[in-house]
Amino acid sequence: MTGSAVSCRATTDPVDVREVGTIDYLEAWDLQRDRATARADGSGPDTLLLLEHPSVYTAGKRTEPADRPVDGTPVIDVDRGGKITWHGPGQLVGYPIIRLADPIDVVHFVRRLEEALISVCDRFGVLTGRVEGRSGVWVPADHRGPERKIAAIGIRVQRGVTMHGFELNCDADLHAFDKIVPCGIRDAGVTSLSRELGRDVPVAEVLPVARDAVLAALDGALPVSDDRWLRRTEQPTPTALCDATPTRVP
Predict the structure, then answer these.
(1) What is the structure's pLDDT at 2?
(2) Is 128:150 a contact under the CB 8 Å cutoff?
(3) Which long-range contacts (CB under 8 A, 24 or more apart) does 67-75 make?
(4) Cα(first)–Cα(last) distance of the chain, in Å?
(5) Which residues are part of the catalytic machinery?
(6) Which residue positions in the chain have pLDDT lower than 70?
């Protein structure tokens, strides 16, 4: 893809990587906004926040009532694009707060994050790829079941600066997804590195690999490839890039 071998960032200054640990979702959202405002104003650097959240459901702007929990479980409505998802222990969450280079290409930024997460899964021996019409990273259908989403992406771009980001299921309790329709997709499953490998793969083991892969993808050292689209006999119902549908505000 054109431009994938060069940086998508507006600067060559180092990214400030912060390994936050476990943090409340609303507290992390405030931290994101503070860092994004500073980056847009030119008073702060590009930042990558890596963390976990206590169990929480968040709903993007395209979430439908039928996607939400039916038992009254609280949901936080957020300003990213896309639909509903879950965050919780055992899931690595990354928030790249990056000033994008001109011309801004939000979809290609999403593709870079996908490439990074595909690379992470490769390192752990899990074959993954992209699905046409849907964002995120997927394990192909096999004898164990249909296509399974292992990583999701949901972003917002304002004043040329990205917010929100990705989630990668490491050793998360996937039963949390049973209460919702993840990303509004009804014809696919959800999985984790631990489930695919049949062993415990904690966030602490994945975090350094993901950190390096995301930084490499943003700077173009890990270019976006065209050969990681999953082959399928029929196309899925389009979901407008699913949870990664970007909200872009001037």
Answers:
(1) 47
(2) yes
(3) 67/180, 67/181, 67/184, 68/180, 69/179, 69/180, 70/179, 71/179, 73/179
(4) 26
(5) 183
(6) 1-3, 181-188, 232-250
